[in-house]
Automatic annotation (TrEMBL):
Class of this enzyme: ligase
Ranges in a coiled coil: none
Motif ('HIGH' region): 57-66
PANTHER family documented for this protein: TYROSINE--TRNA LIGASE, TYROSYL-TRNA SYNTHETASE
Protein name: Tyrosine--tRNA ligase
Subcellular location: Cytoplasm
Gene field: tyrS
Length: 411
């Protein structure tokens, strides 16, 4: 596809710095030469570029893996460009088929609106609300009507649509593909036309849809957007992508103490990956810190800094400081101040039943495994006897480093 860009503005040091910020941690930036031209033009004319990110509110909450692309938006926002946070309330009615092997059931309008409000609140923990253009794609999609939808569909072929991996694989496997699913990438692409975006961001699974926007802008006589894809963030295990189903995630609404402790639990190697994708520190500062670690500074110092930065972003600086102190207290065998109080009856009660009833273990068999692993303490003493029965009284029961309960046990 030929670019409509014919600019010859100078590539200044500021433009090179902006390009370096743009490329930080990215998977792909296409075409790079077009983006350099756009940055040069913006620097020379003072006209900010339009940065688009669209999210479908399909779930009520997000984890920090979802914020990787929001962080990139914030970096570009801090360069002075216009950030458009687009909530796909219309496209959610269709359901994004990206990476799926079956048709996604659509959500109700009420569910979409509720989730959209939550997404907006969570996104503003990363983006600057005062410099963010919040839009909903129902603004222009509802107005298209049947005639406009047919005209839009005429701008792309079925053959090109079937080049998309998930459609190709489902067709080959004989798995049904609904006609309305073809409308999804067309509508996402049309969003770029409506917003006249200069660049669209997304995850690696969105590449086809992002390129669709570029194609349709040319069809409508606009300068085509560039596309920028961000990698999927590895979760706490450092292997699988962050996912709630894999329980290797940090939810951005988790309490500060849990968030801080989870960041500290990641490996030293993964820490640098997270610094690149999640931190707002400059790469120069990160490289300097990495050099200090290589010269003998304790890696834990860098991890604590990262944990405090992430915790402060989603809570506050004071909450991050308190979470650090809470972690120090726990590591010294101290008990946090805010542990839940659980009242149980039936003393003497077996330790397995106590752990299950207090919500510290999902089952008595899992409680037994935790005891075998040396992960259970009662009043700071490690428990090794799975047959232990607790008499009536009050106990501080601990599982691992982060789970506590104050148990009041009666007969």
């Amino acid at each position: 596809m030929n670019s409509a860009l014919v600019t010859n503005y100078p590539v200044t040091d500021r433009v090179r710095e902006a390009m370096a910020v743009s490329l930080r941690g990215v998977e792909e930036l296409l075409p790079q030469e077009d983006w350099l031209k756009k940055l040069s033009r913006a620097e020379a004319t003072g006209q900010p570029l339009r940065i688009k990110l669209g999210l479908d509110p399909t779930a009520p909450d997000i984890h920090i893996g979802h914020t990787v692309v929001l962080n990139k938006m914030r970096q570009l926002q801090d360069l002075g460009h216009t950030v458009i946070f687009l909530i796909g309330d219309f496209t959610t009615l269709i359901g994004d088929p990206s990476g799926r092997n079956s048709t996604r059931p659509p959500l109700s309008a009420e569910q979409i609106q509720q989730n959209a409000e939550t997404y907006k609140t969570q996104a503003y923990k990363v983006l600057d609300p005062a410099r963010t253009e919040l839009r909903y794609n129902s603004e222009w999609s509802d107005q298209l009507g049947a005639r406009g939808m047919i005209q839009l569909a005429a701008k792309y072929t079925v053959a090109r649509m079937m080049e998309r991996n998930d459609f190709h694989d489902r067709f080959k496997a004989g798995t049904p593909i609904s006609v309305h699913e073809f409308l999804y990438p067309l509508m996402q692409g049309y969003d770029s036309v409506a917003l006249r975006s200069d660049i669209e961001l997304g995850g690696t699974d969105q590449k086809f849809n992002l390129l669709m926007g570029r194609h349709l802008q040319v069809e409508y006589g606009q300068e085509p957007q560039c596309i920028l894809t961000m990698p999927l963030l590895e979760g706490l295990d450092g292997v699988e992508k962050m996912s709630k189903s894999k329980n290797n995630y940090i939810g951005i609404t988790e309490d500060p103490n849990t968030m801080f402790a989870k960041v500290l639990s990641i490996s030293d190697e993964l820490m640098w990956r997270w610094y690149t994708l999640l931190s707002f520190k400059s790469m120069a500062d990160i490289d300097a810190l990495r050099q200090e670690i290589a010269q003998g500074r304790n890696p834990k110092d860098a991890k604590v800094m990262l944990a405090k930065e992430i915790t402060a972003r989603f809570h506050s600086a004071a909450a991050a400081e308190a979470a650090e102190q809470d972690f120090i207290n726990r590591s010294k065998g101290g008990v946090p101040d805010d542990i839940p109080l659980v009242s149980l009856s039936g003393a003497p009660l077996g330790i397995g039943a106590v752990l299950k009833s207090a919500g510290l273990a999902p089952s008595t068999s899992e409680a037994g495994r935790l005891i075998d692993g040396g992960g259970v303490r009662v009043d700071s003493s490690v428990i090794s006897d799975k047959g232990l029965k607790l008499q009536a009284g009050t106990y501080v029961v601990q599982v691992g480093k982060r789970k506590f309960a104050k148990v009041e046990l009666t007969a």
